[in-house]
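WARN retry 2 of 3 for item q-0093 after timeout on previous attempt; input resubmitted unchanged.
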Amino acid sequence: MQTQTMANNEEKQRLALRDTDLLNGPTEEQFDRLTRIARQLFNCQTAAISFIDDEQQWCKSSSGEPLPSIPGKDSLCSQTLLGKDIVQYSDIQHETQFKNHPILMYLPQLRFYASIPLRSASQHNIGTLSIIDNKPKTLTPDEIVALKDLAACVEQEIIKSTPQPADDAVKQQYSLRQIIDKAPLGIWLQNTDGRLLLVNQTFCQDLGISESTFTSVAHYSEIYPTEIATNCMSSDKAALEQSQPHISYEQIQFTDGKLHDLEIIKARLFDEEGNISGLIGISSDITERNRIEKMQNELISTVSHELRTPLAAIAGAVDLIRGGVLGEVSVPAQQMMEVAYNNSERLKKLLDNLLDMEKLSTGNLQLDYKQHKLIALIEQSISNNRTQGKKLEVDVRIKGKPKPILINLDAQRFQQIMNNLLSNATKFSPKGGQVNISINISSDVVRIEIEDSGPGIPTEFHNQIFKKFVQADATDTRQKGGTGLGLAISKGLITLMKGDIGFYSTEGQGTTFYIELPVLPTNKAHKKSATKALFQQQSATRLHVNC
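OK item q-0093 returned
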C-alpha cells in the first residue's frame, strides 16, 4: 500500500512539472538571478534549481561550478522531494549512509549539501533549490530562514512561468512581494551607487520610514545620522570589494524609541553579463541575543571575583608547604603539592582571562598608553617564553635586524598579546622547530608577524579562531593546554589599541599571525616602499583572515 502511494505521488509530481512547461525552454534570467543570490549569500561553491522528470535530474539554473548530469535515482534532490522541509548534510564524506552512495561518483569532492523542495501551483514537489560546497559547513537558523525565503521566491517564479490567465500572474507577483514584506528580517536591494530599489515592510516598520522615502534619495545613508551614514557607506564599499558576504553591526533607534542592535549582512549581486549590479542586504535584530550574552558575562564576572580570594589562599598555602616553610615534606607529598600548585596556577590564569574578557565586552578595560621601544618589548616577550621554548625544543628568534621603532601603547597588555601568540606558536610547532618574528613598517603602521612551523589551521575554523572558547580541535585543550580565550582577548586588546590582528595559514604548512599597530610620527619619515610591496605581494598570494 505504501509503495502504491509513493508511486501515485511520483506520477502527480511528474504531471505537475510538465504543466509548468519549464523543461521545454532555455535557462531564464529570473531563475539565474536567484541562484546567483543564493551562491553569494551562502558563500557556497554551487547553487542550483533542479527538476526531476522520469529518470533524469534537470538543472534549470545554476551559479558557480557546473553540475554533471545525474540520473534521478542517484541524485540527492530525489530524497528532498519526499519531504516538505530542508534536507541538510554538513559533511557527506563523514556520513555513514553515503559511504558507497553513487552521488560521490558524480561529485567526488562533495562535502556540504542543503536543499529545499520547490512546489508547483498545485502544491506538488517538482524540484529543489540546492546549495553545495566541497567544504563542510552547517547552516545557522538565520541562514535556514533565508534559504526558505529564497525557495519561496523561486516558487513564485515557477508559478509565474506556468501558463495561466494574465490576472493570475498579477496575483502571483503580489504574493511574492507579500512573502518578502512579511519576512522576519529586514531585506533590501540597492544598486552600486547606494540607491535603494526595494525595501521590505519589516525594515520600514522597524525604522518608521516609508519605502518611498527610502527609494527617493540618491543614497539611503542620507536618511541616517552622520555616524550611521558613514558606517553604511563604509560597509557598502567593503561588501562590493569582497567576494564573501560582508557582516557589520549597527545600533539604530526603532519606532519603539529604543536602540536596537542589528547584524547586517550584505552580498554582491550580478547582472546577466557577470558584472556587479548591486547589493542585497539582510538585517537581523540581535538585541535580545546581546542582552543574554551580557547577563552571561556578568555572571562569569561575579563568579570569577568570588573565586579569586579563596583560590589565592589555597595557592599561597600550597606554595608555603612545597617551599618547606612548615617543615620537610616527603617526596610523594611534594609531588602532590606540585600537582596542586600547577592546577591552582591554571585556575588563576583561567579566572584572569575570564575577567579580562568581561572587561573587554563591557568596555571597562583601561589602557595605560606610553611611548616604548618596540624591539625591547618584543625581546622581553621572547625572554618570557624562553622556558617553554626550551622545554619544547623550539627556537624563537627575530628575523633580520629591524630598525628602532617608537610606539605608543600599553606595554603590559602588549606583552599579554605577544605572550599568547608566542606561546601558541611554540606549543604547535614540532620538536626542533622554529618560530620567526618579523617586524616591518609601512607608511603609518608597524606589522609584527609570528610564523610557526606547526600543522596549520583547518580551513573550516578560519572564521571562528578569534571567538571565545574556540580551538581548532577539542583535543588541543588537553594536549597543548590553554583556556580557549587567549586569541579572543588578544583581538579585543588590539582593537582597543586601534590596531588589527589576523592570520594566514595553509593546513600542513604552518600559520603566521600578524598584528598591526599605528606608529608614531617620528617613524613615518623612513622610506618603506620595499615593505609596502611585500605587504601587497602577501595580500595577492596568501589567504588572509581579518577579524
